[in-house]
Amino acid sequence: MRDTLSLIDATPAPTNGDSHMDMTKMTAGELLAVHNERCPKSDRLTSWKASKAALIAKIEKLGERSKQTSKPKATEKAKHAPTATISDSVRRLLADPKLSYADIVELVLAAHPDAATTTRSIASVASVLRKKGTAVPMRKGAN
Predict the structure, then answer these.
(1) Among 127, 130, 133, 82, which residue's Cα sits nearest to residue 108?
(2) Phi and psi torsions of 66, nearest 5°
(3) Which of 64, 51, 70 minimizes the C-alpha distance to 18?
(4) Is 38 helix (H, G, I), strand (E, B) or coil?
């Protein structure tokens, strides 16, 4: 009755072989390029006024952070990503009269963790679907 999503195991990204020794031989411009490849767009640098050692430490810290929060490759995401939208999930779940609005919210949030779905939003969708002529079973205590 309940659909569950398999959790994606986050595995650390392989290192590029950039050791502290290799980076010490790089120019500041090369280090900035390495930094900007590893960080989010909002944190990219155009210049660096502190020491080269501080920039290397910052790059190494970025490498550690990316290992902790590594994302699956695009092919792995495609295998595990939900194919249905939140709306599709809600419509499909509303067709099952055994599920309460609270059950539907729980299942939607399990499939779409970033969703802001509430029992009230499920009831609203059900109401709109009924007005459009879709057969949506009434729930006990949904009044």
Answers:
(1) 82
(2) -70, -30
(3) 64
(4) helix
Q: Side-chain half-sphere of 29: how many Cα atoms within 13 Å?
A: 0
User: What pLDDT is recorded for position 69?
Assistant: 57
The structure's pTM equals: 0.43
Contact 15, 6 (CB under 8 A): no
The 3-class secondary structure across 54-67, one letter per residue, is HHHHHHHHHHHHHH
Spatial distance between the Cα atoms of 75 and 78, rounded to a whole number of angstroms: 5
Q: What is the pLDDT of residues 85-134, one digit of tens each?
A: 888 888 889 999 999 999 999 998 888 888 888 999 999 999 999 999 98
Residues 6 or more apart whose Cβ sits within 8 Å of residue 123: 101, 142
- Is the Cα torsion angle 15, 16, 21, 23 positive or negative in sign? negative
Of 79, 86, 105, 92, the residue nearest 7 (C-alpha): 79
Packing angle between helix 101-111 and helix 119-131, nearest 10 degrees?
110
Segment 24-68, tens digit of pLDDT: 888 888 888 888 888 887 888 888 888 888 888 888 887 766 555
**pLDDT of amino acid 81:** 53
